[in-house]
Amino acid sequence: MKKQMTDFRVVAREDYLPNFFVLTLQGGEPLDEVRPGQFVEVAVPDCREVMLRRPISVHDVDVEAGTLSLLVQVVGRGTERLSQVAVGSTLNVIWSLGRGFSVAGERVLLVGGGTGVAPLLYLAKCYAARGVRPTLLLGGRTSGLIPTLSRYEPWGRLCVATDDGSLGERGLVTEHSCFAEPYDHICACGPTPMMKAVARSARQRGIDCEVSLENMMACGLGACLCCVAATDEGHKCVCREGPVFDIKHLNQWMNE
Ligand SMILES: Cc1cc2nc3c(=O)[nH]c(=O)nc-3n(C[C@H](O)[C@H](O)[C@H](O)COP(=O)(O)OP(=O)(O)OC[C@H]3O[C@@H](n4cnc5c(N)ncnc54)[C@H](O)[C@@H]3O)c2cc1C
Ligand code: FES
Asked: Which mutation among 3, 56, 225 tests ligand 2's pocket best, with the greatest number of atoms within 8 A of CB?
């Protein structure tokens, strides 16, 4: 799909404690070609300290309503400023970037940790459109760090793991009872150690697996080379050739 730069109007903003928010954007553009796992580059408005756009995953798309949603965690100045944008204001966005998930498989596990849960909502909806009800395994250190849980419920079997046991099963996502069930496809997005643990387990069990890498990015367009990852076919730009990779090409990354 052609990359576009669009002034989107912020049509809704929802805040989730402790530091998450969802922005719903409308730009008058048809969104039917946006793939789950793709991301956008958002220009941070009225903030001289933040020159570079910020990469944020596509959280949800409503093709009929023409809206695209972003789930964001405040971690620094850019996301702090984005958390203050008012409904009715405009955000300049380059979209939709990168390669998304393949939406393959019949017995499917989607694993997300932290803000890595963001792309899994639209991914689960795309599976549902194919008649596949995935298992959604969402993890975080504590219950407050898994925002917007109720949004996922209609689209799959929801399982939760928290480090402190405040919600769902206590422990890592890879220790959750649903993780060991038989699947033919796994998709993961979240902290690198979590994705490596999921990928290594999938490789050992012979399950197809895709992971979404969130390397630091600048241009988001394949020009600055600041986002490269070591793959079995050499270094690749995560922004252009990812962020989603099949782990068949990531043996080196898994072994690092
Ligand atoms: C493809 C992709 C998709 C992403 N999707 C989402 C999303 O859906 N929701 C979301 O909240 N965030 C997402 N991120 C991370 C988001 O881009 C960063 O949190 C954001 O750029 C930080 O900007 P800032 O100005 O607030 O923080 P900065 O002041 O730039 O940094 C604050 C802290 O955040 C860390 N940080 C910055 N960028 C990243 C990064 N890419 N990965 C890990 N740590 C980082 C910095 O090391 C620093 O410690 C995504 C990143 C990528 C590459
Ligand atoms: S962010 Fe510039 S090449 Fe990927």
From this structure: 225
